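One record is kept unedited as follows:
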Amino acid sequence: MLILNILLRLTLLSLLVGGCSLMPKSGPETMDVLLGQRDSHSLPYALVRVTPRIPAILGKAAPRLAGFEDQRRPRDIQLGIGDTVSVTIFEASAGGLFIPSEAGVRPGNFVTIPTQAVDVNGNISVPYAGQIRASGRTPVEVQQTITNALKNRAIEPQVVVSVVDQRTSLITVLGDVARPSRLPASQTPERILDVIARAGGIAGPGADMWVMLERNGRRELAPFGALVYEPANNVYAHPNDTIYVYRDPQTFLAFGALGTQQQLPFGALVGGAVGGTASSTWRLSLAEAVAKSGGLLDERADPASVFLYRGETRDIAEAMGVDCSPFAGPIIPIIYVINLRDPAGYFLATTFEMRNKDVIFVSNSYSVENTKFLTYLNNINATINDPITTAINVYTLRNLTKGGATATAVLTGGSTIAP
């Protein structure tokens, strides 16, 4: 009877231990995630269930150069301080201000003023026209100003202003390109890919490349693949833009009841994990990421508990209906919940786009946790029974060695054998 009481008490203790979630696990249980933050010292987070509207909202916030509001063609090239220009003046006939009467010996009815740079005051000097404002004007506007200044003194003057050395309307291309340089902006409008091509093209696999565009103190970022496959992102380049191209292979982390638990690139490994090369892609869906992680483990995973951890900006979180008042700072920690037990969940997973450094976690099924607990309980009971069985065996053996006819063998099952 004493032994039964001991076993009962140990069983209750084991239940309490199991209830305290002290069993070994690879991560939080489903209910731990769904119930939200319970530790006041922990980082708060918001839960967002993936519905058809969520991928559409996130798609608008994806890193893209199309985020620039003004996608019109750039303004015409304007002169600036330091630009070198050439001024050529034509007259309708000889005997005028610039063309002498003996013009027949000249090669043409024009005169070219020596090249000059726009001075620190933004002016150029033209004989008989004086100081002409050039900075902030296009060559055509400067031509018209010079013509107006000379029309009462020269014979039907016509003026051509050409840029010899352009030093202000430049586009800077830096990073992983063949020839990082400052390129003169073209009179013909160019797009970002055109400028990168003028710099010799990218110096690496396109799927791993990112492009950052800085304009008037504002920056936007996009994968190089987005410029190639989504033409809206190949925006016009403007004078004084800075284009930075850099390599940043995109990866995500996989944990829990998945085929593998490690950091994985967006691209698959070609030729095996050992000695293979990474064939990267610039875009990956959640369904593809789960498949790349080895899929859900049939003997462990709870398909209704697929979680994706990501930080989102406050405006995106509010657009998804998250109450952001408990959170401080511009980034809101969000756990996305997708139910792959629902057949339609796989359609949602194919439209949900992964981001760099996302974390995927899949919880164990409740049956797995129950099995682990029962195994733990069985081990405890076995640990208790082993010394009791040993003591009984020793007691029985001692009686047998005495040789008494009345020696009794006591079995662990509670029955006795009388000789």
About this structure: The domain at 68-73+169-247 is CATH 3.10.560.10 (Outer membrane lipoprotein wza fold like).
